[in-house]
């Protein structure tokens, strides 16, 4: 365990958090930037003496329970939490449940993409949020078959017409990639009951899902070309780009048109139909 670096890391993480961020009142003159040591100890449910010894590189090697408590108290994201564990000479255990809360920064980004269809899914492909242009694109036509359910995997495979839909090469590629991504998620979250139930349900009702699942392919989807036939603006050939949100293991999926293309013109025409 690198005690000196561990203590320095605790100090820098503590200094960046304001009391209001963790629900503590701001009273009196605070000479300390960020939280006080006793406030971190209180939030982590440990003695102030023990926390001071950790910061001053004098404490014993902290247990996983202590590391998890410090991660919560200091509001560490996934990467920061992993770093804290590594500094302590330990390996962070994976989260047992899939996160469904979207970071504020991702919500702001989604709202700012007024000319780009974009939506957020979690690690089991629950549709968490879509911006207005994505809803206009998904509300009808080809995309409706993907998002007719709050869970996109159910929308793809639980549909009685799934076999017919998946004859389309674009849809087949999307489905293959999505199942490979879901297979990777199942390995990361073996104890998530909703993910386990999703896989069991799809294996029961969809031979197409079962065939793809049994391939044991693993992939985090990042790029595909998608052709969408929209009843108002016609056929759009769009580049489907996926941005990963590591803190929550979520995906921001965006549909981009090539500059100067017919798809860009048609996407702009669709944008004109979106209120606001």
Instruction: Tell me the CATH architecture of the largest domain.
Output: 2-Layer Sandwich
Instruction: Tell me the number of strands.
Output: 5
- CATH structural fold name of the largest domain: Beta-Lactamase
Largest sheet: 5 strands, antiparallel
Q: Which of globular, elongated, flat, extended, rod-shaped describes the shape?
A: elongated
Assess the beta-strand content as a share of residues. 5-15%
Q: Evaluate the radius of gyration.
A: 23 Å
- Low-pLDDT regions: 140-145
What gap, in angstroms, lies between the N and C termini?
55 Å
Order of strands in the sheet with the most strands? 2-1-5-4-3
Average pLDDT for all residues? 86
Number of helices: 14
Assigned CATH class of the largest domain: Alpha Beta
The helix/strand order is HHHHHHEEHHHHHHHEEEH
| Tally of distinct domains | 2
* Share of residues in helices: 40-55%
Write up this protein.
Residues 105-270 form the MmyB-like transcription regulator ligand binding domain. It comes from Stackebrandtia endophytica. The structure is a single chain. The protein is an alpha+beta fold and 276 residues long. The protein has two domains: 3-87, Orthogonal Bundle (434 Repressor (Amino-terminal Domain)); 104-272, Beta-Lactamase (2-Layer Sandwich). 47% of the residues lie in helices and 13% in strands. It is built from 14 helices and five strands. It has helices at 3-15, 37-43, 48-55, 64-73, 78-87, 104-112, 132-138, 144-147, 152-157, 162-165, 169-188, 193-205, 207-213, 262-272, and strands at residues 118-121, 127-130, 223-230, 234-245, 250-256. Strands 2-1-5-4-3 form a five-stranded antiparallel sheet. A hairpin with a 5-residue loop joins β1 and β2. α2 (37-43) crosses α3 and α12 (193-205) crosses α13. The longest helix is centred in the middle third of the chain and has 20 residues, at 169-188. The chain is elongated.
